[in-house]
Hints:
The chain is α+β, with helices and mostly antiparallel strands and about 250 residues long. Helix content is about 30%, strand content about 25%.
Amino acid sequence: MISIKSAKQVELMRKSCALTRELxxxxxxxxxxxxxxxxxxxxxxxxxxxxxxxxxxxxxEGYPGSICTSVNDEVVHxxxxxxxxxxxxxxxxxxxxxxxxGWNSDAARTFAVGNISxxxxxxxxxxxxxxxxxxKYVKHGAKLGDVSAAIQNYAESRGYGVVRDLVGHGIGxxxxxxxxxxxxxxxxxxxxxxxxxxxxxxxxxxxxDYHVSVLDDDWTIVTDDGxxxxxxxxxxxxxxxxxxxxxx
Length: 248
Ligand code: MF3
Ligand code: CO
């Protein structure tokens, strides 16, 4: 079931999303060679709880971290670990969100650790551009497939892979609500977008083939060919004229 949020409810989500946005700025300053992903997780936990929010990934279906930290060929759902030390040249995707007063936020960015290759930089840029290409098509009355197709075309026409096994989603009182928001599809297909829908749009893009697998920890998703992956996600609300990005 898809829930349409009232202006009041969107205002509550805006507050949750503002915390997540603020936390990216804090984490960005700590992302450097020598720092463990567990350290980043602790910063996130402390930040959210000090603001009266709950890190909404923690214990979600048993997930053990407050945030996801996915390094290099890890696409998403990497578990923070004190033995996972970031090193110069790595890229790390941070996916995180919180629940504040019953309302969820969810967003992701891929960061450079120290100096990274041109190839990695390009991947990060294209992944972000995929999101912005997709939301050009978001507005009341548009079709979800228009958004999905735009993301897919943008990535694939540049030689990148679009992960199929994980998708974006509705968000609100629940972290994951209907509908699914794939990053691949056909224009003109899918459901109609309606003002007041709140969605997490999250392209997961690979520098090589798009096929992925789950590691033995039952969480971490990696590319099968070992190619680098990047992730860019925002929580948005559909409006009559387009959308508002709540986590940016
Ligand atoms: N943002 C992630 C997603 O939409 C949420 C992951 S929940 C976790 O898939 F439990 F896996 F962390
Ligand atoms: Co999400």
